[in-house]
Every structure is written in structure tokens, then in C-alpha cells.
Amino acid sequence: MLWPSLLCVVLAGLFWQAAVNSWVPEPYLDEIFHIPQAQKYCQGRWSYWDDKITTPPGLYLISNAILRLTWLVTGGCSAQALRMTNWLAIAAMPLIAMKCRGLIEGLLAERQFEGGKRSPPSREPVLSTYAFHTGLNIALFPLLFFFSGLYYTDVYSTLVALAAYWNHLTRVSTNSAVTWKSDVLVVVFGVASLAMRQTNVFWVAAFMGGLEAVHAVKLLRPPPTSLGQSDRETKFKFYLWRYSQGSVHDPPLNKAGLEDVVLCVLSIAIAVCCNPFRVLRQIWAHVVVVILFVGFVFWNGGVVLGDKSNHIATIHLPQLLYIWPLFAFFSAPLILAWPIQRLANILGDNGSSNSNNNCTANSDPQDPCTGQQQAISGASWLSITMNLTGIAALVPLTLAIVRYNTIIHPFTLADNRHYMFYIFRYSILRADWVRYALVPVYITAGLLCWAVLGGVRQHSSGIDRPSITTTNSSSSSLSIKETLHTSNDYGTPTIQTASSHPADNKTSHLAPSLSTALIWFLTTALSLITAPLVEPRYFILPWVFWRLLTPSWSIPWRFLNGASLLKRTDSGDNNNKGINQKKGSDNKAAYDVRLFVETAWFILINIATMYIFITRPFYWKNPDGSLADGGQVQRFMW
């Protein structure tokens, strides 16, 4: 059923192409620059360049090559033929996206520690249904699918960035050193991405290069070491030494708090600084891409080509606020399902807590289990306090950004053909108080997006509850192995247990590691905050990578059948025995139903925006009632 679904995406793209070519045969909006430029290349006029174009010529080069290879160049490349090259890109999009997601899940499955060493990959990761369906939905993402019918740069820009990500995932999927061949591919994909859009440098260099730097220090694989009772100075030196050896603090995102963020950044910085040559060997190809980009900027006299006056880089922090409502709108099926996820997870915690805990309830202060519980409780309260303080700090920070850094680009106010014109008109431009009233919306949407990215904890995998050992039977201090907060590059704690064989884990459920999420956010910030214009298309790549990293979630059958886990009693071994007897049925999970709702939601948005674009044309008029812009038909679009 899934492969016919892929065919449906391809046919839907053809239908959209036919509709645009039938109703809008002439170049529209930015196509009036892109299509003539591509046609000049088809004629062999390689030195010609339209100064109104701000992006590099990658789109024109690749479409020209495709048309020549497919024998479609006739009479200088028609608008219809050039648009069809974007259809090829949207047809290839789900294949590359699902392959990337499959490699991410393969990393989660294969990179488990066994006695302090990684187990070698035993087979090629099998493409999961979640990976397949995720690839389909990425291709249906409204901002991508809509522009697949027009001759814009966005579809190929995203496709090439995904191809670079595919190569990156392939590089880090092996425990051995990278090869020179893969290094060359990094440079090739990096240059190709830059040829599509300049801001891609942040994704192919900063994002993927940052992930590979973390991967390089984790390959040091120091043996597990435990620390007994000691003073603060000894502990401090011990952890500095462990960090320098590559034992970085990198828990899964769904188990990380504010204190973990500080430790994660600190440990990675120490590990990288103490192993510069190892890191440089891993990322030198990304450094070459950055050097080439810097050279282009000096040669060009700026980042953008052509019209530099209307694209001056500036600090625009509200971009980091606008992105969350946009994510929440397009990913509404994932966002709205989060309360259900939490409810099911709470029921799972209540029903399975005793099965994974060898300590029975008691009040003996000398009992080791009591010491563990007290220490864990104290750590939990510290974490909760820090997290609440961090969330509270978001309010004044967001208010300050809105007050002092809100920028309204002239293009946003001048062009009523874009939806963003109406969003601004009826929100932050309506009244000053509306800007501040939106602060809770920004914060809530952002927190929900992070919660969805972290996913929920799945207890059936067997790696969700690492053990904690005491150093002394009469002491409440804990000795936690340093591998407890060490994870593979994309996910869960790397701790082996009896049921943690890669083949037994539902790896699509596993959350990305904290370092991956932080590097994603940093890259998103770098790619957005220098742009004064708020353009939905600028959010495509941040959303695509966020969506690829988002773990799956499926409602357990026991939750669907109404078998409340709260009814289970705390009866020790008998209770555990009952749980074990039902292990097969309890662990059985349904398909991630959010994917179907997400598909339907994207189809609905696509139909609505395509219908408006085709059937709701309008005209600009001068104050005297005459037609402006030469009587050209105007249409609504992203």
C-alpha cells in the first residue's frame, strides 16, 4: 500500500503541473526572472546574468542539463519544460527523505554499547513504515509541493541539501574513519547546495559539520568508568578527564533538562579542544566548503547576487519567534497529538514502574534503595527548578526581542499577493498590543515543537531505564557510570541490557540526542536571523530536518483496548510475572496514526492553496481605477 502511495504523490505532482501550465502558461512573479535566465543558458549564453536575481545559477544549470539529457530542449526551453524539471525533484524527494530517516533509525539500532564497545553493524537498516511515510509527507509539505509546479529554486535547493545529509548519515553510520571518497562527496554536495541557495552553507557545513565533530570525539570510545565517593575537586578533575577522552554528556532530548544543556555544550567543547586533529580529519571537507563560501562572498562583494540593496543582512531575532507558530500550523497533527502521547506515557509509567525497579518501598534510611530514591528525588527537584526558571526567563527575553528588534521589511507591506502580507496585516501590524499578546503563542508553540522533537519514552525497548548502583550500602551517594549520559550521534543512551538487541528495538520511537537538537537549533538561528524579510520559504529546510529527526509514536494496544495500567497492583514478583506473561501483547504497538492525519492535513492545505492560486485571480488598480502593472493577472501564493 505504501508504494502505491508514492505513485500517488508523483501523479499529484503531474496534476499540479498540468493545472499551472493550463491556467498560468506565462511566467508568474519570480518566474519572470528565473525562466528567461534559464532560457539564456539553453541558448548557450553563459555570460548573461539578470541583476534582479539574488540566488546562484544552480537551478538553471541543473534544469538545462536535465532537459538536454532528456532531449526536451526545443526552441530555447519553454516555461512548461523548465517547470517539469521541478516535478522530477518533487518525485525524487520522498525517496531521499525516507532513505535519510532510515539511516537515522539504523544509527539508533546499530550503535549500542556492549561492554564499552560499539557492536559492528550487522546488516543494512531495513526501511521502516515510519521512514517511508515520513518521506511521503515531506514531499507533500505545502511549501515544497506548491512550488514544485512553478520554476522556483526551493525544491531543488531542498533536494540537494537532503542528498548532502544522506551522504553525511552514510559517513557516520560506520565506526571506521571516513574515506577520501566520502570527503570529496561532501565538497561536491556542499558546492551544489551553495549553487542553489547561499544560506544552504549553514546546513551542509554548520549542521552536518557540527554533527560530524561530535561523532569524531565519540569514536574515541573510552571504556566505562565509575566514580566512587570523593570530594568535589576530585569529581571535577575526573569529569574533565572523561570529557577530554570523548565521554561527552549527551542524553536523549526527551530526558534532558537545562542542566544537561550546559553539561552537553561544556563536555563537547572540551572533547573537541582536546582532540583537534581527530576532529579536523573528520570535518576538513566541511571546512573546505566554508572556505569556498567565504571566497565567493569576497569575490561577489556580499552574500546575495544582483539586487543587494533590498537584501542587506541584519540581526533579526524575531525570526526565531515566528518559526514556531509556522511549525505548529503545518505540523498540527503532531502537536495536537502530544497530550495523548503524554497521557499514554503516564499510564505506561504507572503500570510498569515496578517491573523495572528492584527496590521495594521502605523507610529505612540505611537501606541502599532509600538512598537511591532520595538522591534521585533531589536531582529531580533540582532539574525541575532549573527548567521552570529557564521557561520563566523566556518571557522577558521574548518581550525584549519583540520590543527592540521587530523589523517589517518593505516587501512584506508592498506585495499583497503573498499570505505573509495578510498575516502581518492582521497580527503585529494591527496594533502594538497584539505584538506582545503573541508572546505566549511563540513560547507555547516553541515548547510544544521541542516536546514533539523529543517524543515520548518507550519502555518496551529495554533501554529506557538504566540501572543506578550505590558505592556503599550505607550511603545515599550514587555512583553513576559515565556512559549513562553518553549516547550515539542521534539518540538513546548507549547502555546494553538483556533486551536491547538492535533487532528487538523499535528504533523509530527513539529521540535524537541533545547535541543533535542543539546543533539543529543553532543552524536554524544562523540561517534565519540575518534575513530581514520574513518569508515562509526560508523555513523549509529547518522544518524538513526537524521533521526527519522527530521520532514516531504509536498508541499501545493495551491503551487502545482500555486496559488501564493503573489497575495493576504493586505485588512484587507476582505482579512482574503477570506483566511478563503479557509482554508480547503489551509491547505490540499500532501504526503511528499521526502520519495519516498529517497526510490528510497537507493534502487539505495543498488543495486549498492550489484552488485559490488557480481560481481566484485579481488585478491591481491605480487610485483612478485604471489597471496597474500593465493589467497583469495577480494570484495569491505563499
Automatic annotation (TrEMBL):
Entry's EC annotation: 2.4.1.256
Example of a GO MF term: dolichyl pyrophosphate Glc2Man9GlcNAc2 alpha-1,2-glucosyltransferase activity
InterPro entries listed in its UniProt record: Alg10
UniProt xrefs under Pfam families: DIE2_ALG10
Subcellular location(s) per record: Endoplasmic reticulum membrane
Keywords of the record: Endoplasmic reticulum, Glycosyltransferase, Membrane, Signal, Transferase, Transmembrane, Transmembrane helix
UniProt GO BP: dolichol-linked oligosaccharide biosynthetic process
Residues spanning the signal sequence: 1-22
Ranges annotated as spanning the membrane: 87-109, 130-152, 283-301, 321-340, 391-413, 433-456, 595-614
Record pathway: Protein modification; protein glycosylation
EC supergroup of this enzyme: transferase
Family: Belongs to the ALG10 glucosyltransferase family.
Known role: Dol-P-Glc:Glc(2)Man(9)GlcNAc(2)-PP-Dol alpha-1,2-glucosyltransferase that operates in the biosynthetic pathway of dolichol-linked oligosaccharides, the glycan precursors employed in protein asparagine (N)-glycosylation. The assembly of dolichol-linked oligosaccharides begins on the cytosolic side of the endoplasmic reticulum membrane and finishes in its lumen. The sequential addition of sugars to dolichol pyrophosphate produces dolichol-linked oligosaccharides containing fourteen sugars, including two GlcNAcs, nine mannoses and three glucoses.
Protein name in the entry: Dol-P-Glc:Glc(2)Man(9)GlcNAc(2)-PP-Dol alpha-1,2-glucosyltransferase
Species lineage: Eukaryota, Fungi, Dikarya, Ascomycota, Pezizomycotina
